[in-house]
């Protein structure tokens, strides 16, 4: 999925970088006759256009993006923004008048202001927590690659005209939207498959209790524990208490609560953490030798001794 987001970022930057290099050439064409107004009128107009795109994109990223993400979801918002971005860029070459370009730039800035933070946000959510920095660096790598590829659209502009160049740049954003939708459908299918597997693995409560009871009885029989029913029930309760410990309510300053935490950490073998709590509250040390090692790992004599100690504690 991270590689798919990298491809989305590459296509997005190709579209934007393509527009960046093509727009000054387009505005400076002789048919607009801007040189008669002022020798540097074309360059100034291109600068104003880029300034407008930057300001409007910033506004969209801070306001519209969050609304779209909450309303449609991250990937859906990215797809919608990609389509608007590509549509705005592709239409530039077909405008009959130069003033209509502002409509195209508004559409492109709106779309890019939505899709760019969307795929960055999505990448941060799927990134491995231990490799977040390396994963997010993928955005910068694709940006540099897009600067190389997008700049070559000037060759298309020179040989095939402005319409073909802007259309090709906008097509990159359309492919971006397509990959985003494929990523969404794949993710949705994986979640559905995972949910179906969990549903198939579920069993009725009575059947679950029966299986657990049979398993625990089998464990007791294999260990050769010759126990009465009441004593066996107490042993099983002890097993469950260790598996699902109950902590008395309270915070880190409550002695009773921290005593339970201390006993739990000791039973789990977290001696360093347990020692800190013991030193802080002055608890007596706990002999956790039998808690750390299963009875099956001890020799026969030690196992019998452990069993007798357990029986003595129960009676």
TrEMBL record:
Give a GO cellular-component term.
plasma membrane
Q: Subcellular location, in the record's words?
A: Cell membrane
Q: Where are the transmembrane segments?
A: 7-27, 47-65, 72-94, 100-123, 135-158, 164-185
Principal place where this protein is found? membrane
The topology of this chain with respect to the membrane is: Multi-pass membrane protein
Q: Please name the InterPro entries in this protein's record.
A: MFS, MFS_trans_sf, MFS_Transporters
Keyword Transport present in the record's keywords: the answer is: yes
Single GO term (MF): transmembrane transporter activity
Keywords (alphabetical) are: Cell membrane, Membrane, Transmembrane, Transmembrane helix, Transport
List the PANTHER family hit by this protein, alphabetically: MULTIDRUG RESISTANCE PROTEIN MDTH (PTHR23517:SF2), RESISTANCE PROTEIN MDTM, PUTATIVE-RELATED-RELATED (PTHR23517)
Give the protein's recorded name: Major facilitator superfamily (MFS) profile domain-containing protein
Q: Which organism is it from?
A: Octactis speculum
Q: What are the leading ranks of the lineage?
A: Eukaryota, Sar, Stramenopiles, Ochrophyta, Dictyochophyceae
């Amino acid at each position: 999925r991270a590689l798919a987001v990298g491809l989305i970022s590459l296509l997005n930057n190709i579209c934007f970088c393509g527009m960046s290099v093509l727009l000054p050439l387009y505005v400076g064409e002789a048919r607009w006759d801007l040189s008669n107004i002022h020798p540097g009128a074309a360059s100034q107009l291109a600068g104003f256009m880029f300034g407008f795109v930057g300001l409007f994109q910033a506004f969209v990223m801070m306001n519209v993006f969050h609304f779209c993400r909450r309303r449609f979801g991250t990937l859906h918002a990215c797809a919608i923004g990609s389509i608007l971005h590509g549509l705005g860029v592709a239409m530039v070459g077909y405008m009959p008048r130069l003033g209509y370009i502002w409509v195209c730039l508004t559409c492109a800035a709106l779309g890019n202001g939505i899709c760019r933070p969307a795929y960055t946000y999505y990448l941060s959510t799927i990134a491995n927590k231990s490799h977040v920095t390396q994963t997010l660096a993928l955005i910068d790598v694709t940006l540099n690659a897009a600067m190389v590829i997008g700049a070559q659209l000037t060759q298309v502009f020179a040989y095939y005209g402005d319409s073909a160049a802007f259309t090709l740049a906008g097509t990159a954003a359309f492919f971006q939207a397509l990959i985003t939708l494929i990523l969404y459908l794949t993710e949705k299918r994986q979640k559905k498959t995972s949910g179906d597997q969990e549903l198939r693995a579920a069993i009725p409560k009575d059947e679950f209790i029966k299986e657990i009871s049979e398993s625990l009885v089998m464990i007791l029989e294999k260990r050769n524990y010759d126990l009465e029913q009441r004593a066996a029930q107490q042993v099983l309760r002890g097993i469950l208490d260790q598996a699902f410990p109950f902590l008395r309510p309270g915070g880190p300053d409550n002695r009773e609560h921290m005593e339970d935490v201390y006993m739990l950490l000791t039973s789990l073998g977290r001696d360093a953490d347990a020692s800190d709590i013991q030193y802080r509250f002055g608890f007596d040390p706990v002999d956790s030798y039998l808690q750390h090692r299963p009875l099956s790992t001890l020799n026969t004599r030690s196992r019998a001794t452990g069993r007798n100690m357990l029986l003595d504690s129960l009676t």
